[in-house]
Each structure stands twice: as C-alpha cells, then as structure tokens.
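Troubleshooting: if your tokenizer reports a length mismatch, compare your output against this known-good record of 581 residues.
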Amino acid sequence: MVEPIQMATIVVIHPGSYWLRIGRATDTLPVTIPHVIARRHKANAQPKYEDKILNREGILHKDSQTQREQALRMVDQAIWSRKTSEGLRRHTTPLQQVQAYNDLVTPQELDEDSGMKWTDTNTHVDIAVGEEALYLKQTEQYSIHWPIRHGHFNLHPGPGGSMTAVLQDMEDIWGNCLQKNLNIPIKDLKHYRAILLVPDIYNRQHVKELMNLLMIRLGFGAAIVHQESVMATFGCGVSSACVVDIGDQKTSVCCVEDGISHRNTRLCMTYGGADITRTFTWLLERAHFPYHECQPEKTMDALLLITLKETFCHLDQDFDGASLLDFHVSYPNQPTLQYQLKLGDETFQAPMGVFYPQLFGVVGEKMVYTQQRNQGDPDDIHDELYLLQTQSQQQQSTKVKPGNSGTNECAINQPTEAVTVLPINQINNSSSQSQNDLLHHHTEETPPPAISRRISTSQSLDKPLGLDQAILHSIDCCSSDETKKKMYSCIIVLGGGISLFQGVTDMLQHRIQSKMPPSFRRAVEKVEVICKAKDLDPRLNCWKGGSVLACLDTTQELWIRQREWKKYGLKVLRERSPFVW
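Known-good structure output:
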C-alpha cells in the first residue's frame, strides 16, 4: 500500500542562469528571485569579486566589432526584404536623424526621492540573496556570485568558481528562499519532497551533485529529477512538441514525443536574453543614448538596460518608422530622472540577433552544444559503458556458435549511431518511458529479441546556429516523417528571451515556413508557433509542468527516497529517472 502524498509537501525547483523559480506544487505561481548571492568579506583587505550581469568574454575579441557590423547589414536586409501585412516595404530611419535628436535631450527631474533603498547590510551578517544582493552599494565589502551561467555550473578559476563554492552558493540561496519565502524550516525538509528541473542537455556530474545537495545537504525526504522540455509539454497540456526555451543566457531546442525528449534532437546555443540586451546597448550607444552616465558594468544600469529591452524591443514587421520613447532612471536615495529617446529600427534589430547570432559579437567561444557521451562514474559501475563492454564480449563469443550468424550480421550492419545490440534480459530499468527512449526493437524475427541503444556522439556543430536553423535541424533529427510533421505542427516557445516580444509568433512562423524542406511544406497544413500556451506566462511553463508531474499517479514510482540515495547513490538515479540517464 503506497502512502498518500500531501501535495503541499512537494516543492518544485527550477534553477536558471538568472532566475530561480521555486514553490509548492499547490501554489498558483512560484516564488521568482534572481539566482544570485552576495557574500560579505571576512577580511577588509580581501579583493572584491563580482560576476557582472551583462559582461561576456567573447565580446572583447578584436574581431567582435567587425562581425557585429557585418551581421547588422544582414539584419537590415532581412528586415527590409519582408513586407508589412499591408504589402508595403518598411521605411528605414536614418541613423544621423536619430543621433541629432538624442544629442539635444536633457533629463527632467521628477521626484526628489526615487523611493528605492539600498540593502541594509546591518541586518545581513554574512550573505544577501536575490534582489537584496543586487541592491548593494558598490562600496560595500561583498563579492557577488551567480552560481549558474549558460545553463550550467559557473565554474571558473576565480574566487567562488570551484565546484564546492558553487554548490555552497546554491545551498544558501535555496535554503534562504525555502525559509523566508516558503516558510519551510530547513529542519523540516525531511518531511518534504522535491522535484528538480534540469536542462535537456545535462551534465551527469552536475545532476549528481544537485541530488546530493537536495538529499544530503538540504535533507529532503525524497526527490525526482526531470528535464525542462518534458515539463514544458506538461505545463502546456500537449503530448508532443518541438520545445524552444530561450532563457537569459542559453537557448535550447528539442523534440518531445509522448513525454520523451529525443536525445538526437537536443541542441543548446549559448545565447539568450542577456545577449539581446548587450546588443541593444551597443545600438543605443550608436544612436547617442542620452543617458550619458550609463555604465553597463554597474548593476543598477544593467537592470535599467534589461528593462528598456523588455519594454521597447519587438519583432513586429508592421511597427514602422521612428519612435519617441520615455524612460526613467532611478537610483536609491536619489531623484528620479526622465529622459526622452528617439529610436528607429534599433528596437527591431536587437532581437533579430537570435536569427543572426553573429550580431551578438561573440568571437572565440563555442556556441552550440549537443548531448555529450556518458563518461561513466565510479559510483555506478554497471552503467551503459559496462553494458557496452559486456555486450561486445558476448558478441565475440556468439560469433563462433552455429545458427547465430544472422543476428550478428544484423548487429554489425546497423547505422553508426546504433552502437550495440543488447539482449533484452540484460536491461533492468524501472521506468518504461526510459526504455522507450533508450531502445528500439528490430523488425528482424530472430530469437532472442534484440534492441539497440542509440548514443549521441560528443560531436558538436561548429558554427553558431540561428534560432530558425536550430529548430529545423532539431526537427530534421527526428526518426520518422510522421514525427517531423507533428513537431512542425506544434512549436512551443518558452522563457523570457523573446517570447514576450510583440510579433515573435509571426516572425518565427514566417522564417521556419520559408526554410523548411519543400516536401514538408506541402505535407504540413500549418506551422504552429505557440508563445503563450493556455495564456500562461511562458517563463513559468516548465515550473508549472513540475507541479503537474507532482499530481500524476505514475509519479509514485519515480520518487528517490533519501535512504535509497544514501545507500545506492547514482545507481538508483539511473534506474529510477524518468529519462535516459
């Protein structure tokens, strides 16, 4: 008899590069805070370290500016070549006209006090988390760390960049949020369960450490790990879709069919909303941005630039001509200043960078990743590498036996991705969904039944892919034409990168339809792009899917209990995870 689980004792955690979303499965909306921590220096002479919100090494390359200028010409051509809904060409506002107006702008003081306050450091002995970490004075003796960058642990040679430091940062951020925002004392977590959402292209070592964080360090009684894309389909209420998740620093694309994320379709590009903000900042500077004191390296100015991007940028082809825009500059304990700003196509050009990533000016960084081959782990000696090796030995021994030549020939002549053939009785996996993703049956009627394991190579794409190219590439990696048709018919756009921009649905639909193979153009009635499934904020779909997972009866079989994790470790995750480990 399975004990009933109280939904209020299940916590869904969705950690991202910029935002942490966490809440009970019964909550309508999660608590959302910046995923950042500030640590007070233990010694006055300690050097200050700060992970900047908008900085990125690749934009400091000597060829970055040239690449940006070339890409901007391509973007301008793309904008001009597509007509408005009335069949007209868009008008380009001369840059000189915009610059001349902005040069004459002077600020207007609105209030004596902006009403904003700096974080009171007298109440924080050691750490500040979330917005409290962002609203620290520059003169305060704190180092600021963002534990996740581009969807993975923020490991680097500087202070706070070790695995131990990153995990400690996350433990403090999550623990602080659980206690202050959800009113759950850490000592009571043994009575709670956690659902952790991880990227589709995951690092096994990182997932293992996150499970240790949940089960050992924080002390949750049980946990489930699942992939963001599958949870997104749960949250949107669809069974199959091409899921496009555009976050602050990464964009992931993958095809999900009946609750399974197809490994070969997974792509991750290391650009997102922050790169759009950086590009918009560069375009504002070209247009003689009237707020001359703006320094993107400063946290408050970086937050202002993010707000300007979210407010003014769009992908609407009908939005034509120059615009006069108002914005406010507010600093704690200072008057609020109002500026007027004139812009032409800059509000359109910046988000077009997701289709022309060269516009982001990132040089010398690898920007596209696929799922890496499993490197193995000493805690799980019977993993897939062990199965591959033992199967190879078995194939060698069965070659000399009469009557088995047909089976061996079938195994040898398989495609390169089908690395091995395993007898079905060697697979011991408690999740039938995982088996469906991991294995496909041969049509050959040869006893005993055999199944093949598809392993994605560690090879990654060399050149940065635009969003439309990545979607087409991902769908093209699906195994059948029928699956590809389903993916073209349901493309879900998530995250806060571009999904909230006006016109994004039509733009993405147009670019995919114009580039998709002609055979599918005839076969697919309509390319459907969905940015607000069920009218839900697209930034919350993944978290909402986690709360849906908590309600399902089949979820009972997936829980990994604390005593099991302590006893078996990684082995139980491989056997119990609802996706192919």
